[in-house]
């Protein structure tokens, strides 16, 4: 993530004016920069390649008390009760609540804030790089908080999820490996947990199976290895494959994997690579904390030797992010010049905030594989 300010005469003068000895001129210039760059920060945050941006945004007025009519987010043939996962405050404990689909879900939102400052002399010298990096830090701090909160909600919902006595989390077919057979099994499990109200084939609008998988760099390495490593998990008679009888994948699949360098799509499913996933990763440890009940009750997950692969069906409106919109500028992110500094402190400061929540309305959109 990088924000760059162009070195134009207008922007150079604006940055210099922020360091003016005239308090009115300086504050007016600082406010002008905040109004200009606030929408840019919101755009950067909302388009960053992060787990938090897999949520569907639901905007509401900042002074409103947001709610969701659950019946509009579930098919008429769905079960009468649904399990909703949410947090009442940023970084708080994720709780699940069983609600009738005919009810109105009141949303608990919270504020995410960031405050930064830099020396006034950098503005006096028109150091555009210092101002740009300061604004980049604001976006990074907000995105870090969003990612942590999003992972906590999603992984808690996945760890607890069961549907029709079927766990949403499965084990990899080969120890410490993730191959196409595992991806295929995740696709099948995502189909099996979505049924009609009589347990039959659901309406097509209820979901098409997983569309994205969230994985670690090591899992992407496994996918790249499809180009040259054996991928079979069974012998011809159905028994487990032995060390000396591995079969290489078909040439057309190997060529496709090699050409794409393991990138971003297999079986039409997007591959999202996050460093927070994998053994020792922050998100892996979060899942390990939540594991042990529901979908992982019959399995053992050790965050020091196992890792979780998360599959998400984004065709279902399950992951919801309610976010407040400012009545004055219509933006999600408010950046304001900080007026706490006196002239003697020689500092220029900004603080920014947004109000949002994170909700999982339907855990059937989530499946996982323990590798």
Helix and strand content put the structural class at alpha+beta
Count of DSSP helices?
Answer: 8
Query: What is the strand arrangement across the widest sheet?
Result: 9-18-13-10-12-11
Mean pLDDT, nearest integer? 81
Helix content: 25-40%
Give helix and strand order, one letter per element, not per position. HHEEEEEEHHEEEHEHHEEHEEEEEE
What does this structure look like?
The protein has helices at 9-17, 23-46, 120-124, 128-160, 180-192, 217-224, 251-259, 282-290; strands spanning 56-61, 67-69, 81-86, 95-100, 104-106, 110-119, 162-163, 166-167, 169-171, 212-215, 265-266, 269-273, 308-312, 319-325, 334-338, 347-356, 359-360, 366-370. The mean pLDDT is 81. It has 371 residues and is α+β, with helices and mostly antiparallel strands. Helix content is 30%, strand content 23%. It contains eight helices and 18 strands. A hairpin with a 2-residue loop joins strand 7 (162-163) and strand 8 (166-167). The strands form five sheets. It has a six-stranded mixed beta sheet, with helices on both faces. Strands 1-14-17-3-4 form a five-stranded mixed beta sheet, with helices on one face. A three-stranded antiparallel beta sheet has the order 6-16-15. The two termini are 30 Å apart. The protein is globular.
């Amino acid at each position: 993530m990088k924000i760059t300010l162009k070195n134009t005469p207008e922007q150079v003068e604006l940055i210099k004016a922020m360091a003016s000895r005239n308090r009115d001129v300086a504050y007016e210039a600082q406010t002008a920069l905040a109004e200009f760059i606030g929408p840019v920060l919101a755009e950067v945050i909302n388009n960053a390649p992060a787990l938090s941006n897999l949520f569907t945004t639901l905007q509401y007025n900042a002074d409103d008390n947001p709610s969701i009519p659950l019946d509009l987010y579930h098919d008429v043939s769905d079960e009468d009760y649904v399990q909703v996962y949410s947090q009442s405050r940023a970084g708080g404990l994720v709780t699940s609540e069983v609600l009738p689909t005919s009810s109105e879900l009141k949303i608990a939102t919270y504020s995410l804030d960031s405050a930064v400052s830099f020396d006034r002399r950098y503005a006096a010298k028109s150091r555009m790089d210092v101002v740009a990096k300061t604004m980049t830090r604001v976006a990074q701090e907000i995105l870090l908080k969003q990612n942590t909160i999003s992972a906590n909600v999603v992984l808690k919902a996945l760890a607890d999820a069961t549907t029709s006595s079927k766990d949403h989390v499965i084990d990899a077919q080969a120890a410490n490996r993730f191959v196409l057979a595992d991806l295929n099994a995740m696709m099948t499990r995502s189909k099996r947990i979505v049924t009609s109200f009589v347990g039959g084939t659901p309406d097509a609008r209820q979901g098409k199976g997983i569309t994205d998988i969230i994985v670690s760099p090591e899992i992407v390495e496994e996918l790249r290895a499809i180009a040259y490593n054996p991928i079979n998990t069974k012998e011809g008679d159905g028994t487990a494959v032995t060390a000396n009888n591995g079969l290489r994948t078909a040439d057309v699949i190997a060529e496709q994997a090699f050409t794409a360098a393991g990138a971003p799509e297999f079986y039409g499913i997007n591959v999202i690579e996050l460093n927070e996933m994998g053994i020792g990763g922050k998100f892996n440890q979060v899942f390990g904390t939540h594991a042990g009940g529901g979908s992982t009750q019959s399995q053992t997950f050790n965050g020091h030797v196992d890792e979780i692969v998360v599959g998400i069906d984004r065709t279902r409106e399950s992951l919801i992010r309610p976010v407040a919109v400012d009545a004055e500028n219509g933006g999600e992110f408010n950046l304001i010049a900080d007026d706490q500094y006196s002239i003697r402190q020689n500092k220029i400061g900004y603080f920014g905030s947004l109000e949002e929540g994170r909700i999982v309305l339907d855990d059937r959109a989530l499946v996982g594989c323990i590798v």
